[in-house]
Amino acid sequence: MNKLLIVGTVAFDAIETPFGKTDKILGGAATYIGLSAAFFNVKSAIVSVVGDDFPQEYLDLFTERNIDISGIEVVKGGKTFFWSGRYHNDLNSRDTLDTQLNVLADFNPVVPADFKDADVVMLGNLHPIVQMGVLDQLTATPKLIVLDSMNFWMDCALAELLQVIKRVDVITVNDEEARQLTGEYSLVKAAAKIHAMGPKYVVIKKGEHGALLFHDKKIFFAPALPLEEVFDPTGAGDTFAGGFTGYIAQSENLSFKNMKNAIIYGSNLASFCVEEFGTARLQRLDKDEVHERLQQFKALTQFDIALEQE
Amino acid sequence: MNKLLIVGTVAFDAIETPFGKTDKILGGAATYIGLSAAFFNVKSAIVSVVGDDFPQEYLDLFTERNIDISGIEVVKGGKTFFWSGRYHNDLNSRDTLDTQLNVLADFNPVVPADFKDADVVMLGNLHPIVQMGVLDQLTATPKLIVLDSMNFWMDCALAELLQVIKRVDVITVNDEEARQLTGEYSLVKAAAKIHAMGPKYVVIKKGEHGALLFHDKKIFFAPALPLEEVFDPTGAGDTFAGGFTGYIAQSENLSFKNMKNAIIYGSNLASFCVEEFGTARLQRLDKDEVHERLQQFKALTQFDIALEQE
C-alpha cells in the first residue's frame, strides 16, 4: 500500500454559520485531509502538534482510519491551536473571531521514520518554513509533492513561500490567492505565472464555483456539486486536497487523465464536507455514498455531442 | 429548415472596459442572439424596432446571415435605443452611464406572418408586456419558448413578468436574478421555485463561472471556457441564448441530453463573444472555430473514471 504523508494543523475550531454555532470541535487542515484521504487504500500519517487538552477520542478517530499518529506531537501542559470564525450569510466570506496559536507557535515537525520515503506528500497550510522542514527530512524523492497555502503567508512570509513553491509538483490555492501571488486577474495567466515558479500542476479552487487544474497548456475543470444547502464550508479546501492526494496515492498514476479523476474525487469529498458542521459528515460517510455521488458528478458534467450535421 | 423567432433590442452601445472604449457600435439583445443563432441551420427572424439613424450596413449584416428583418420596424425620424456602460476592473460588474430608450419607448412588436408558426421562440430581455405581445400573435404552439429577463423587470414589472414566465418552457436568468426572483440563496432551491412558476427548464447563468441547467431533479453544468483575457462581456448572455436556441431549433430534439448539448453550444459561442468589443468577434467567427472550441470544452470537462479498485 502506498504511503501518504500529511503535514498540517490539528486543531479546535469554533464555527458560526447562519444555521447555528458550535463549541470547540475537531478541526485543522491535517484533520480534514486525513479523514478525506482515508477513503482510499493508502497508508497515511499526520505530522502535527497538539496540547494535552486534545481528547484521546480524536486521536483514536485517526487510528481507526489507518492514519499513523506517531508524528502528532502532544505537548505536555500545552494548549491545542484554536480558531474561531463567523461566516457571512452567503457563506462565501467569513470573519476570524479568534486565533490562538498555542503549541503551534513552536512547532518543529518530525516525520516518522516509516514515512520518510512517502510516495505522496501533502503539505497542508502552515508556515512555509515548517513545510520546508518536512521536505528536508525526506530520504527519497516522493512521486508527488502537493502544497496548499494561503494569502496570510503571501503577506508575511513571501520569500519563504516562494522557496517551498519551487520544490513542489502541485500547488493548490484559491482564486484570490492565485491573483495575489501573481498580480494577474485572469486565472489562465495567473496559472502560467505559478507554473513558472516551479509547480507543474496548478489547482485553483473557486469554492462553490469549482476547481481548475492547469498543466502545460491543458486545463480541466470540476464544478462543485450544486447543493440544496451549504451548511458549513470549513475544511472544504482541505477535504478536497485529501481526496486529491488520497486518490493519487492509491492509483500511483501521474497521467493528466488520472489527475483529472483526482480533482473529481477531491470535489466529491468536499461536497460532503460542507453538508454538516466541521468533520461530522466526513466521520459518518461511507464509500458507497462516495461512489453514488461520483455518478452525480458524471450526470452533472458529461455530455455527448456528435459533430453537427450539415 | 426550422424557424426561430427572436424578439429583443437592436441597439447602439458605447462600451468602456479596462482595455479601451468604443464609440456607438452595434448592440442589443436580439442582435447578439441573431448573430449567434446564425451558426446553426435555422431560418430566423428578429422582431425589434430601430430609428432611421440605424445604418443599412447593420441591417445587411442580418440579411447576409439569413436572418429575416421584416419584423424590425424602422421609425422615421426616430432614434435607435442607446445604452452606454463602463465595466469595473474585474469585468464582473458595470455601471450604466446612459440609457436612451428612444423608439423603444413605444415599441409594438409585429411578428412577420411567416414566423407566427415558429418552431422555437426566443424572448430576449424586454418589457414583459412586449414579450407577452409576441406570444399572443403566434398561431401555432411553438416546440419551445425561451425567456430571458433581468432584475430591472423584477423591480418594476413583477406581476407582468410572472405572467409571461408562466407561459414559457425555458427561462434564462443570472444567479443574482434567480435569487431576487425567489428569495432563495441556494440556486438549487431557487431553480425549484422557478420551476413551480411555470418553466420546465431553468437556466442559471453565472458569467465567468458557467451556467446551470435544471430540469425536474436533473442538473447539468457547463463551465465558461477559461480565457487568457475577457475583453468585453457585453452580449455574452444573449450570445449564449442564441447558441442555445439555435442549436435546439436546428436539432428539433427536446430531450435532456440534447438540452445539455445546447447549453454547451451556448457557452461555446459566448466564449468567443467576450474576446473582442461588441459583436466584432461573432462577426468574423467561422464554423470551424466553433467546432474546434467544442473540442476544448470536451477536454475541459470530460473525464473517465473506472470504478475504484478495492
TrEMBL record, chains A, B:
Keywords: Kinase, Transferase. One of its GO terms (cellular component) is cytosol. Gene3D superfamilies: 3.40.1190.20. One of its GO terms (molecular function) is kinase activity. The keyword Transferase applies. InterPro entries: Carboh/pur_kinase_PfkB_CS, PfkB_dom, Ribokinase-like. It comes from the Bacteria. Residues 21-280 form the Carbohydrate kinase PfkB domain. This is Sugar kinase. It comes from Flavobacterium subsaxonicum WB 4.1-42 = DSM 21790.
